[in-house]
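HOLO CASE FILE
Compound: tryptophanyl-5'AMP
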Amino acid sequence: MSGETKKRVLSGIQPSGNLTIGNYLGALQQWVAEQDTFECYFCIVDLHALTVPQDPAALRAKTREVAAIYLAAGIDPEKSAVFVQSHVSAHTELSWILTCLTPIGWLYRMTQFKDKSSKQQQESIGAGLLNYPILMAADILLYQASAVPVGDDQRQHLEFTRDIAQRFNHTYGETFTLPEAMIPREGARIMGLDNPLAKMSKSEASEYHAVYLLDPPDIARKKIMRSQTDSGRDVRFSSDPERAGVNNLLTIYQALTGEPKEAIEARFEGKGYGDLKKAVAEQVNDRLSPLQARYNRLMHENGYLDEILAQGAERARAVADKTLAEVRDRVGFVAPYR
Ligand code: TYM
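Model generated. Tokens follow.
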């Protein structure tokens, strides 16, 4: 298939906190798998990370860390553009134009805003947190992406993106492709190891909540061995909230191995939770060890990462600037004289 005819994919991860196996199974694993089918754009969304307070030095270091993790996980920069969101100024510009078209009620209705803002004092909630979905819509629409590989928690943001794209198209004429969320069948919502009723998150402080992609094998193993289960014994998939811990471990196992549920249940027939935990830890470490080895090599190759990010931004700009020029024209801006 030639590059011209491939449909486009765009996705991104915030460089805030440590990336978890949730980010890997919900997002990165799919990205790697889709690289040959789609023309892919993967960004590190540093502008989004600013919606909550960030230490500047930490943000800079995290941005590079996340870029290196993309590559270490198997994103091939020859195939896919890997770039930093703030390197492509079209994202903020389109975001403003879409902001002016967004009814404020749409923003107040977003569950992520409701969750995040309920945990803060009214005065300390940045307007960025409210406007967050508009910037995400701009990320996607600039590339005319038809598919957006994300975890289950991003579903509502994708619906918002479609709504705002439709509103723009309706107001100014067909401009944007309407994107579809591409949610993995398994691993779209990995739960916390310490609390299987809450989504695993990179911004959760407690020590046994998540396996991080850069956790040493003994730490990853310890976290999994200590994960919360129940007083039962059957190692079976289940939608019973009481059994959410075991279900979560089985889901991680399934998302990593790609084995059907029945085969996994048969494998653990007559075995206990301890055996399941050991097997999950082994699968996780088998996947993380080569990723970490590549990550360490990349971080030691001076200049390589910067070069990849510069090339990625150049490829991204070529597409984003074209869409933005059309948008500027549609809304009635005077084209710059030179
Ligand atoms: P972020 O940084 O919170 O998460 C990055 C990706 O990881 C997925 N994910 C999970 N998947 C399964 N189980 C979990 N426990 C889990 N936790 C996170 C997320 O669904 C996501 O795919 N708003 C986005 C970043 C973003 C973006 C975009 C994504 C900004 N612009 C444009 C796609 C396209 C976010 O905060 O993801």
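CASE NOTES: The chain is about 55% helix and 5% strand. The chain has two domains: 8-183+302-331, 217-297.
CLOSED: yes
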